[in-house]
Here is the input.
Amino acid sequence: MKNQTLLFCICLMAASLVISCQKDNKQRSIEKVKVPDAVLAQIKTKGFSTRNVHAVNGGYLVEGDIFLSTKDLAKKATANKLRIAKTEQYVTNNQVSGLPRVITVLVTGLGSAFVQGTDLAIQRYNALNLRVQFQRISSGNADITIQGFYEGPSGGYITLGSSGFPTDAGDPFNLVQMNTHPDAYGSNPDVLYVGSVIQHEIGHCIGMRHTDYMDRSYSCGGDPVDEGDGGIGAVNIPGTPSGPDADSWMLACSNGGDRTFNANDIIALNYLYQ
Here is the structure.
């Protein structure tokens, strides 16, 4: 494998630093909180990896950048457990409903690189002419708020960003969090890189799981891990190939640079929202 740099959980092997995306809205203690075995069992039942789970405000962060609230973990599994392929585009049981729909996005308390990165991500989504469109607003209540927090490395990890999945009512997840610590994006964040991370996190907000959820070793290295389908769902999207795709914008791990939709990603988004 050429690169083992996580796009949202960057693995810098040379520096012995693993970057994981954790959810929080304030600077917090760097002491890692032990996750109870009962919670790990719930996470496994829901179909997510139990490796490197982090306790955060209101729930837990799994798979590097996905927030599961304690309410999410308490939900019973649904019947939707369709799995066709071993890799490629997967979606949760919940998607955004009420289409066509404009999803408003508010960037608050972040520098210009994050604002420009948000505009870039929105431009890329809207260029697909989907029935879900995005619009950045400068004030008021938004469907998705993008905000920052400042946190350095903790236990070998540093936060880049996080988000979650749509609600049962068909609304997008309402929060994307981005780390403003220089160890996350540097003192002069690259707009293309920041925009690509925001683009990925918005993908989760509208229901996309990691492309390689069935075998994270493909993009992240290490042992193959089947994260399952559990209550949150992992439904293969018809028309996407059954083989690995090294360029998907929803891969769990990447080279940490600019990444946008490839042809198969567009097929997946069109299937859901065209």
